[in-house]
Amino acid sequence: MTLDDFWPRWWASCKMLRESTLIGYESAYRLHLRETFGHVPLDAITVERVESWAAAYADRPGACRKAWAVLRSMLRKAAKWGVIAYDPCSAGVGLPSPKPYEPKTIGIRDVKRMLRHFHGHRIEAYAIVSAVLGLRRGEACGIEWEDIDLRKGQVRIRRSVQYVHGRTITVQPKTRLSHRTLPLPRFVVERLRQIRRTVHGRGRLTGTLTPLQVARRFRSHMRLIGLGHIPPSNLRHSWATNALTAGVDLKVVSAMLGHSDIGTTAKYYLRPTWDVYRQAMKTIGASILNA
Asked: CDD domains attached here (predicted)?
């Protein structure tokens, strides 16, 4: 059985995944795997063959790793179902290393400046919750006014809104721990109460705007107020970095971000600032002198 022959069977097993995930799988297979492996028998896909394919992606490590994830899933499933005796790539495959990514973040002072300049903007409520809660872009777009309890000062994260194939869809949050209730600072509660009166407290915080339209308006306004090219997703990175700088425990940061694994928080989101390094050295220096 070739990989092309196995594709429909494997694809049928993926139907419970998010639509956006399925679109990514399909495009990865069509664009990066079919031409090289589609005609190849499953048991003939070896580590050597895969690494030879991967070598051609030296300048596109991200695309390579996404496509490899699809191929690996197919091979594992084929072995699990007894289509092949074992996963031929189970020993591990060498892939091109991803380029270091350092998302541009903004500090506490710039967050305050951002919130001040978004005052009265159509997506002000969205900008507020994104900046002070470290939400995923889809989570922030999915918040409805009924999810916010201004009396208790908290917001429930219960859904995520995505823009897929030219339409807006509503899905469950990314992980089980992404279903969470987060407290709101007092100044946020007071401002949201004012905004809510103007929109009569119905529907999403973003109104009828799609996630794509929200992102465009956000980036445009950030450039307008002099904070540069900061996509909405970077507010999440900024929140994590600022929380660390403020001394919030890593476990708390991870839980508030809705991560299932604290390692994800440490690896991808926390970027210690110079002030944190300097304070650490003061602490170390003091301990040496007082020893």
From this structure: INT_ICEBs1_C_like
- Neighbouring residues of 188: CB distance < 8 A, sequence distance ≥ 6: 128, 129, 132
- The domain ranges of the chain are 3-80, 108-275
| pLDDT of the residue at 98 | 82
For residue 115, the one-letter residue type is: L
Q: What is the 3-state secondary structure (H, E, C) of the chain?
A: CEHHHHHHHHHHCCCCCCHHHHHHHHHHHHHHHHHHHCCCEHHHCCHHHHHHHHHCCCCCHHHHHHHHHHHHHHHHHHHHCCCCCCCCCCCCCCCCCCCCCCCCCCCHHHHHHHHHHCCCCCCHHHHHHHHHHCCCHHHHHHCEHHHEECCCCEEEECCEEEEECCEEEEECCCCHHHCEEEECCHHHHHHHHHHHHHHCCCCECCCCCCHHHHHHHHHHHHHHCCCCCCCCCHHHHHHHHHHHHCCCCHHHHHHHHCCCCHHHHHHHHCCCCHHHHHHHHHHHHHHHHCC
Domain 108-275 = CATH 1.10.443.10? yes
Q: Is 261:148 a contact under the CB 8 Å cutoff? A: no
Give the whole-number percent of the chain exceeding pLDDT 70.
96
Cα angle, residue 162 at apex, residues 161 and 168 outer, rounded to 5°: 90
pTM over 0.70: yes
Region 102-122 average pLDDT: 92
pLDDT band at 260 (very low <50, low <70, confident <90, very high): confident
Tell me whether residue 207 is exposed, middle or buried, using C-beta atoms within 10 angstroms of its C-beta: 0 to 12, 13 to 18, 19 or more: middle
202-252 pLDDT, tens digit per residue, is 899 999 999 999 999 999 999 999 998 889 999 999 998 888 878 888 899
